[in-house]
């Protein structure tokens, strides 16, 4: 039996980990023991622990409760705490997801203890080094022994950086999740009733990226555009706690007029809103893809995206934080014919199985010499 420590800390990671953990639990229980570590990076109940119940993930074996502070402070505290967990659990692998501070801390802690790292969503690049997520993903990829890529483009990105060994295009675990929960959200209309909206009559928006929220000018332009769009159709904005605080700090709360504001939503409610929306506006990588999976037109309020396939297929449009471009593109998509997507760049919905099978390959699960053997 091999032991895997899985590091998660942010809402998108809980969703991705759910797919892999389900495969481990249902199909490989006698071959893999998984220990889940929640760093605490997302500490709001609707953004964290409720997800474990809703997605049927076992509660974490460790909850480090590390949230807040600068990137350096947060990552440093996580690094120390995760190292202690690894000394205790002595895993054969550390599994990390995505591009958060939790990802980087988990990857660095394992690498410094000579524990092999497997990185899910390896190879994504925005080519914007001002994004903390870009730094996190690049560094995590450099210290990983197995790089699980969601697309062929991600494989090419790694190859251009000289990373070839241990690289696998397994598809996107988010597509696994979308297929698994499609039936569960098909009949979930309670959230629409609660918000007093009807199917295909509203736009769904999310804003949380530091490049938008840390800039008073960018955040104000986005909110102004969403408020103006609210004159044409309902706009629903589940508001990230950090974004809410910054709106108050910048004194731009007046621009929330005409927008239906909610707290962060449980996963199934959020998926129900995504599936039924006329249009999605976001700066979230996960929401861009979910819009793609559900065939909903998407506008991404960023300068670039890691999920370039959504743009190449015409399902997604980059508009920066431009008030004019957001409104122009939203108006165009509202008046356009329904979106039809024939391409499947993110695999066939069996990514989690591919990941687990690769981890179990004989050449990948041999125990290696680690520092704790001398402690």
Detailed description of the structure:
The chain has 375 residues and is an alpha/beta fold. It folds into 2 domains: 2-172 and 348-374, 3-Layer(aba) Sandwich (Rossmann fold); 185-334, Glycogen Phosphorylase B (Rossmann fold), CATH 3.40.50.2000. The chain has helices at 11-27, 49-54, 71-89, 101-112, 132-142, 152-160, 173-186, 190-195, 210-213, 216-229, 241-250, 267-276, 285-294, 308-312, 323-334, 351-360, and strands at residues 2-8, 32-38, 62-63, 93-97, 117-120, 146-149, 167-169, 202-206, 234-238, 260-262, 279-282, 298-300, 316-318. The strands form 2 sheets. The protein has a 7-stranded parallel sheet, with helices on both faces. Strands 10-9-8-11-12-13 form a 6-stranded parallel sheet, sandwiched between helices. The radius of gyration is 20 Å and the shape is globular. The two termini are 23 Å apart. The model has no long low-confidence stretch (mean pLDDT 92).
Low-confidence spans: pLDDT under 50, at least 5 residues? none
Proper CATH architecture of the largest domain:
3-Layer(aba) Sandwich
Strand order in space, largest sheet: 3-2-1-4-5-6-7
What summary fits the major beta sheet?
A: 7 strands, parallel
Order of helices and strands: EHEHEHEHEHEHEHHEHHEHEHEHEHEHH
Rounded to the nearest angstrom, the radius of gyration is: 20 Å
Structural class, from helix and strand content? alpha/beta
Instruction: Work out the number of β strands.
Output: 13
